[in-house]
């Protein structure tokens, strides 16, 4: 009876809200005539916060805040965390990152507690020391795991920046060679291309248009990352802007240098992979080959001995 009632309710809802039976709203009637209207500015509305951190702070505000302060006091390294967040291009602060560490630690503790519960039920006995050690390991692993994941995110983003750098540098060189100013060239490249480096250049251009000198905006871009090629790229731009040296040749030479560095990294990675490939060959393929070669002879010797 309950299943039939649920099925009938589902069919009734599906039929009622189907397009042929659904009543046309006023918004649907006016949408074809106002779809070209630009959306209103966000500055006219009220600021709203959304996301996991906001929900966690609203539900467990004092506890999470105290936990974030304790983690920050125990681990320290606020400068290193701030530098990695800047290299990631994130707008989050160190406090937000500590809150994420607390959340990851809580999830690790919950997972360890569930694992300990399942293990105790299967074993039929509860070892308090093992359960406590497992919970502590889950808590610490969650907190440190968030820090490790931040490092991985920064490394992945830096790899993307290095991969995009030669193309962006050559596009800037082409735009400057065509007679555009550095600001116009950066604007054209950020408008026509996408990616992490184009986004960083767009942010620097936005700060320059807001009143910050272009040299300071580009220097801020170089300070946010730990990549030497990008720092040299920004230094070359600054020198070209200050002294009036030809910028196109500088950009092309830097793009060529980055491509050569990428080739060297590929060769080094290939060398490491070649050494790693020797492990399955030596410890898996070679013993199996020797076994197949010697096993028939061994069987023959055993049969003759009998």
UniProtKB/TrEMBL annotation:
Record bears the keyword RNA-binding: no
Record keyword Cytoplasm present: no
Transmembrane segments: 102-122, 128-149, 275-295
One cellular-component annotation, GO: plasma membrane
Record's keyword terms, sorted: Cell membrane, Membrane, Transmembrane, Transmembrane helix
UniProt cross-references to InterPro entries, sorted A to Z: T2SS_GspF_dom
Broad class of where this protein is predominantly found: membrane
A matching Pfam family: T2SSF
Ranges for domain Type II secretion system protein GspF: 170-293
Source domain of life: Bacteria
Intracellular or extracellular location(s): Cell membrane
PANTHER family cross-referenced by the UniProt entry: INTEGRAL MEMBRANE PROTEIN-RELATED (PTHR35007), PILUS ASSEMBLE PROTEIN (PTHR35007:SF2)
The protein's name in its UniProt record: Tight adherence protein C
The organism of origin for this protein: Geodermatophilus siccatus
